[in-house]
Design brief:
It is a single chain. The protein is mainly beta and 194 residues long. It has one domain. Strands 4-5-6-7-12-11-10-9-13 form a nine-stranded antiparallel sheet. A four-stranded mixed sheet has the order 3-2-1-8. Keywords: Signal. This is DUF4833 domain-containing protein. It comes from Chitinophaga fulva.
Length: 194
Amino acid sequence: MRCLFALIALLFTTVVVNAQQEAWQIVPGTSVGHVKLEMPANELASLGKPDAGDAAMMKAWRIWYGHKKDGTTDSSSVLAVFTAMRTQDTQYVKEIRVTSPHFRTDKNVGAGSTMSTVRKAYPGLHLVKVYVSKNKSRRIEVYDDEQLGIAFETASSRSGRALCSMVVVHTPGEAPGSYLDYHIGFDNLLPAKR
């Protein structure tokens, strides 16, 4: 009988650990945590009411911010989900963006990883977009593996090493941001060849 209880406890622990790991998993071309590409937008209700968003012409951004231990909003930790109409009455998830370092791929990269580490993990990445702020003080580079359906955006760090600031999961074969640009206040430049 003790063996049966021990086996049940082990099975339960394994299921709980796997569910927790899945909640923080980035799967290229598929999902970020429990948010999956092509899922109906009404299933996003499980995340609670979005903290921000924008909608127009049957497309919408829904944005959730993380929270600090004291309960205040952590605007540096963002989950942004882009949805668009595919049928007359239902929007579907088309792109997922995440800045929280808790979310990682199976190669253990995500926001906060150095871009050299990201590029080693995903050798198919290519520089596809460069954004520069209006006052030229900030620059964002977007590296994408279009076939896998994953892109990484950079931010400069104090050390001067490029760090991943955001991971974008999109439909394989389609470029990130092909539906609606997320970089308000930035000018899109043609990428320099690297």
